[in-house]
TrEMBL record:
<keyword id="KW-0677">Repeat</keyword>
<keyword id="KW-0460">Magnesium</keyword>
<dbReference type="InterPro" id="IPR018247">
    <property type="entry name" value="EF_Hand_1_Ca_BS"/>
</dbReference>
<dbReference type="InterPro" id="IPR051433">
    <property type="entry name" value="CIBP"/>
</dbReference>
<dbReference type="InterPro" id="IPR002048">
    <property type="entry name" value="EF_hand_dom"/>
</dbReference>
<protein>
    <submittedName>
        <fullName>CIB1 protein</fullName>
    </submittedName>
</protein>
<keyword id="KW-0106">Calcium</keyword>
<feature type="domain" description="EF-hand">
    <location>
        <begin position="118"/>
        <end position="153"/>
    </location>
</feature>
<dbReference type="InterPro" id="IPR011992">
    <property type="entry name" value="EF-hand-dom_pair"/>
</dbReference>
<feature type="domain" description="EF-hand">
    <location>
        <begin position="73"/>
        <end position="108"/>
    </location>
</feature>
<dbReference type="GO" id="GO:0005509">
    <property type="term" value="F:calcium ion binding"/>
</dbReference>
<dbReference type="Pfam" id="PF13499">
    <property type="entry name" value="EF-hand_7"/>
</dbReference>
<keyword id="KW-0479">Metal-binding</keyword>
<dbReference type="GO" id="GO:0000287">
    <property type="term" value="F:magnesium ion binding"/>
</dbReference>
Amino acid sequence: AYKRFSELLPKEERDNACSARVPKSRILMLPELRANPFQHRICHVFSTSDDGDDSMSFEDFLDMLSVFSDSATSDIKSHYAFRIFDFDDDGTLDRKDLEQLVNCLTGQGEESQLSTAEMEQLIENILEESDIDKDGTINLSEFQHVVSHSPDFARYGRFQR
């Protein structure tokens, strides 16, 4: 992990990798993130930058790798997946978050974008299945409940090389 992190730094900063921050643009060059539709959210969620630039420290990088590793529990994976899908960082997945989530998964292109009616129906279906307390949003415990019934979740929530 240290070697991979230091390779993202300019040569002159590699000796001080433990105290350096890698810019988001360099993190996004990782093959594991390059094609990930949530790459920007992943950087945002794992970055502890005070500048809001989503740069990462070595500790941030380790946190990201550990969450996406095979050894992370499904509770840890689902917690971070929830945070990644919570686009407005308000602690719930509302209709707007779900729309952004679907758009990330289907792509933003004209040919792949859902119609307004299709999007509305899909969001209704997601809320019907996931919103246990029927408040119109999905909280972390509701999300984890749904994920716990999805055997594919842990298998696909990995940071593959």
